[in-house]
Amino acid sequence: ITRFEDCIVQMLDVELLLSKIYPAYENAHIPMLTDVERERLKALNILLVDDSLIARKQLSDALDSINIPYSICNNGLDAIDLMRRQASVGNAIDLLVSDIEMPGLDGYELAFEVKNNPAIASAYIILHTSLSSEISVSQAHQVGANEALTKFCAHELIDAMLRGAEKATANANL
Fold first, then answer.
1. Which of 13, 85, 123, 135 counts the highest number of beta carbons within 10 A?
2. Phi, psi of 120 (to 5 degrees)
3. Shortest CA distance to 30 belongs to which of 1, 70, 58, 2?
């Protein structure tokens, strides 16, 4: 909604509205975003971490389908190294999406390491797992993750990422 001369003008995203009214016509695998939501995500430095080639493909396909840039690592050790390097050049990761079960540095350990390093601790952390349990969610929060999701629902992931974008925007305005 905006004011133009003496009139109040409301702009509507018709495609988004129709997808909400007629969900059968929406592609279930591709989340619908408003332009504002898409721009919020595009502004973030996003890192995806998963040791599974299939899971990495699902994550990257979800973001590619909505034209959101990201970096990707296939293990926690590479991820923490990349995050430290990015922070050292003033381009810190804003949003970390990581698998929990990985060899070496798993998602819990990665979240813990991120939250204990002041240079990268501001990252919004979303852990995801194929194991659906309250224990996974509780443990994820204990190590500093902001959210824990069950693999793989693109809509849940994008919604969680949008919550991370809101937090990043709020932190930038402080």
1. 123
2. -125, 0
3. 58
Q: Which helix (H) or strand (E) holds 157?
A: helix 154-172
Q: What is the pLDDT along the chain (174 residues), one digit of tens a residue?
A: 888 888 898 876 655 565 566 554 344 456 778 889 999 999 999 999 999 888 888 889 889 988 999 999 999 999 999 999 999 999 999 999 999 989 889 999 999 999 999 999 999 999 988 766 666 777 888 999 999 987 667 888 899 999 999 988 777 666
C-alpha dist (Å) from residue 72 to 3, 22, 43, 76, 90: 42, 34, 17, 11, 19
**152: burial class by Cβ within 10 Å (0-12, 13-18, 19+)?**
middle
CA gap 169, 159 in Å, rounded: 15
